[in-house]
Amino acid sequence: MKLDGLRVLDLSRFLPGPYLTMTLADHGAEVIKIEDTKAGDPSRVIGSREAGVSVYFRNLNRGKKSLTLDLKAPEGRALFLKLAETADVVVETFRPGVADRLGIGHRAVRAVNPRAVYCSISAFGQSGPYRDRPAHDLSVGALAGTVALSQGADGTPSMPGLPLTDMAAALLGLSAVLMALIGRARTGEGDYIDLAMYDAALSFLAPIAGQALVDGRAPKPGGDRILGGAALYRVYRAKDGGHITLGGSEPKFLEELLNGLGRPDLIPIGRKPAGPEQAPLHRFLEDTFLTKTRDEWNLWFQGRDICFAPVLDLVEAFADPNMTARAMLVPHEGGGKQLGVAINYANEPGRADPHAPALGEHADALVAALGYNQAAIAALRTKGVIGGTS
Hints:
Layout: E1 7-11, H1 16-26, E2 30-35, E3 49-50, E4 53-54, H2 55-61, E5 65-69, H3 74-84, E6 89-92, H4 98-102, H5 106-112, E7 117-122, H6 137-144, H7 164-187, E8 192-196, H8 197-203, H9 210-215, E9 233-237, E10 243-247, H10 251-260, H11 267-270, H12 279-289, H13 294-301, E11 308-310, H14 314-319, H15 321-325, E12 329-331, E13 337-339, H16 363-369, H17 374-383, E14 386-387
Parallel strand pairs: 1-2, 1-6, 2-5, 6-7, 7-8
Antiparallel strand pairs: 3-4, 5-14, 9-10, 10-11, 12-13
Helix pairs in contact: 1-7, 6-8, 7-8
């Protein structure tokens, strides 16, 4: 696979870091997940469980090795730095300054391995007035302006259905790590990545930022094209209470839809700017889509060159035949299904490992590979420096 031979030390928890490192593992990297000796990653106990494993944890940590380590103990720090000598990448999600206080920050790793790429993911970055402010996805999105983009008719922001800032940070972190590795191939030197979830969320505002940047006005629901202002880019209610979406307002889609519905006279309105000028077309489509059920409209749209889709819930989405065709649901060792690999290579495809590691499952083997004998490992366990299964 693409990343065979790459060693990654994963000090991260919850979502951004684990998603980044799991993607590396899916493509051959050896990812060593370093967890505390008591409970490990909090996602181990979040949400639904299957075959004794949290589905949340499994979908972010499959294919990794787990090493439980007390990083506050001198022996734990020494063991980590010995591992770091062999690492290509280190990823951590502590609050700014914590890794340095533990003695495992970028400077400490660089001293033993200048080739290592070190990625710190935090809510607001390693500098700035919000540096020490505690936050998860929702609070970061609130300050970045992304939460305000999803508002109801009364102007109240709704709960985001996906953790945008977490996923934006994960994806940009993955890109940053891979770019740093490409740079290392040229210079022989690693690098340090200061990645803020806040910055990542802001960078994802490119399609919607214009009005605020140029006019000093915040975008409102029903105004901008991607906030429901375009009649052919919005969600509509169907007769049975289900919903459908129109997802493309190019002229060819506009003409195909309105000719099909017998209203070519409304085509000029659909060509007007998004917002109030398209209101007559909005009203017509709202009334029209209430005349059939969601599934009846799904049949009506078949064979028509229009960007359309029914709104599926997750159970329906996971049962959709396209999920199987794209191998986006694959088996895990418990006998059920897990999410598949989204990055597809023709020559070296990735693999969704069916196994998620038990807490500390690989501790003995990893520590022994660093030159510790069984007596030394037993002593580390007695002191509580390493833990988990043995």
